[in-house]
Amino acid sequence: MQVRSSTDKSPCGLELPEKNHERILVIKLYAIGDFIMSLPSLEFLRKQRPSAEIHLLTGMNTTALAECSAPADKVISVDEKILTDPRKRLSLFSLAVRLRKQRYKEVYLLHRVLPLRLLLLATGAGSRIGQGKRKFGLTKIVPFETGLIEHDAERYARLFGWNGIEPLPEPRINLPERKITDSVISLIQPGTVAVSPGGGRSSIRNTNRKRWPPERFSRLIALLNEEGIRTVILGSKEDGEVLGDILDNLPDSATNLVGNTSILEAASVLAGCRLQITNDSSLMHIAGLVSTPTLTLFGPTDPLRIGVYPPDRLHRSLVSNSVDCSPCHPDRGIDECEDAKCMTSLSLERVWKEAREMLEMTSV
């Protein structure tokens, strides 16, 4: 476990106000995209409690991102396997002891996971706030579902008292100046389009049903090449194992960075791109965070709930209009789907038409 010391600035230079002795802990682990969707609520909390000392407990996968984007005085990085791997239970006990020593006044849990509530109890905080239907381990429960059409960013914000009337603060990120080599940056010429054909994977789930067929992405890259548009292909190392065939047959105008960038390096690349075409993935949210326009292909998931936040005309969602069972995640067993018709029914012609419209909107 790594604990970052409190300072008057975050590690990436975000200014933080002077503090009193009121300490607040926020727990947000797991998926990168979910973490980014929680950032507006953290900005709201900071606005409401400017002098409180806010600590953020997050996973190792999101620590570097948290240090550059979360308005927190201290980032506590933890290996999320301590929650699932019996061999790491001793580390969980050690974490609980260290958290208790901080004497938090309030603890907020941005998960509906009952075992994590035991960690809240272990902190000894008098105020323990979370979402769900059962109050076990909490002093206050905030409903996650209200019956309204809400983005998950707004669901998180209600945990901190947001009433839905005023707009949420927009998330922000201060990228370090050198997080990627000059030789790679030089490849990202003006007008470059990022293509992200992977996704669907987090520390707790691998959902390949969220991916548009790789061979269609391959043809899309070829169409961009025919228009004289350079592309950069982004994704994780695991994506590379799935996308091997299309990555082996890229045109000369395409730069393959799949598996070769950290989160912050990918953010730096996306910040220099004209547009990103992607599946619903963490890279979609990262592009939104650095204000790069996105064209996202949705199937099992609902863009109104988990698309780029805040919504903007330069963040376009493309969904199938011929599959009645979409969206099915997280409310209706995505794991039971056998053919992912919601993704395969998105034709190359329709995606290319939308892409061309967005290219005109983002012309350089």
Q: What are the defining features of this structure?
A:
364 residues, alpha/beta, Rossmann fold, 2 domains, 14 helices, 15% strand
Name the shape in a single word: globular
Q: Please report the distance between the alpha carbons of the first and last residues.
A: 45 Å
Q: Kindly report the spatial arrangement of strands forming the biggest sheet.
A: 1-4-3-2-5-6-7
Q: In total, how many beta strands?
A: 13
Give a summary of the structure in a few sentences.
The protein is α/β, with parallel strands linked by helices. It contains 14 helices and 13 strands. The model is unreliable at 1-8 (pLDDT under 50).
Describe this structure in words.
By secondary structure, the chain is α/β, with parallel strands linked by helices. Mean pLDDT is 86; it is low at 1-8. It folds into two domains: 2-158, 3-Layer(aba) Sandwich (Rossmann fold); 187-361, Glycogen Phosphorylase B (Rossmann fold, 3-Layer(aba) Sandwich). It has helices at residues 32-48, 63-69, 89-101, 114-123, 152-158, 182-185, 214-226, 237-242, 244-247, 263-271, 282-289, 303-306, 341-344, 348-361, and strands spanning 2-3, 23-27, 53-59, 74-78, 106-109, 127-131, 140-142, 193-196, 231-233, 254-256, 275-279, 294-298, 315-319. α1 (32-48) links the parallel β2 and β3 (53-59). α1 (32-48) runs parallel beside α5 and α10 packs across α11 (282-289). It is 33% helix and 15% strand.
